[in-house]
Amino acid sequence: MVVKKPWRKILYENQPYPDNYTDDSFLRDLRTNIKPVSMSEALWGATLLLEEFCTVVAFVLVYVYLYNEWTQPESIFTVSSIFTALGFILYRFVYTKDAQVNLGHDLRTLLIFMVFGHLFSPVLHTLTDTVSTDTIYTMTFFMMVIHLIFFDYGVSAAIVSNSLSLSAAIFASICLASRLSSAYHSFILITVAVELFVLFPFFRNKIKKSLYVIGPLFLCDVYFLMSSSVLFMIVFILTGVFINIGCPVLFVRYQKYKSNIYGPWDEAIVDDADVINSEHNK
Length: 282
Fold this sequence. Notes:
Low-confidence stretches: none
Oligomer: single chain
Strand order of the largest sheet: 1-2
Number of strands: 2
Order of helices and strands: EHHHHHHHHEH
Helix content: 55-70%
C-alpha cells in the first residue's frame, strides 16, 4: 500500500493529487460576513444620503419661489451669497491650510463665474425654451434621481461618479432655468445650483459632522415647504424618516440573510503604502 504525501497548498512542487484537490484544512479559513454593519454606522451613513436629498429639495424650493415670484431674486442671491461666504471662510481659514496662497485663485474663479454667468444667462434662459414644461419637469426629476444615485457618499463603489452626478444636477438646473421669467432669474438659479451642488459638498466633507448640517438644512426645508404646500411637507418628513431611520433598521435587520464568503481563494489585497504610513503616524 502506497502512502501519499500530505497535501500542501503550494504550486512549485508536483504532488500526487488532482489539480483541483483540496483537503479539509482548505475550508478552515472560511469566513462569512466579516464586517457586519452596526446600527450606529448605518444611521450615520444614511445621514449622508439625507443631506444630499435635503440639498436637492432646497434647490427645488428656490426654483418654486423664483417661478411663482414669492420673493425677490435679490433676496435669494443675498442670502445664498452670505452663507456661501461664511462657508468659504470656514473652509479656507479653519479646515484647510495655505489660505492666503489660494485666496487669489478663488477670487479669480469667482470673478470669471460672475462675468460669464451674466453673459451666458440669456442663452441658458432660452436654451430649452421650445421644450414643453411637462418634459422639462420630467427630465429634471430623472436628472436629480441620477444625481442622488451616483453621488459620492464616501463609499468606495463602482457606481460612484462625481462627474455624472454633478453634470446631472447642472443639467437639471439649466432645464428649470428656461421656465423662469427673465435671464436674471435664470442667473440666480444657476448660481444657487453651483453653490449647492459644487461648493457645498466640499464644505460638508471638511467638517465631518453631519448633524451640524442636516439639522438646520432639514428644518429650513420643512419651514419653506410648510409655507408652500403642507402635503409636500408631510411627504418630505416621511421620506426623511424612511431614509434616515427606516432604511438603516431594515439594512441591519436583514444582514443575517447576507452570505459573503471569504477564504484562501480570494485575491490578495495589497495595502497602499501611503495609507499604512498615514495610519501609523496618527
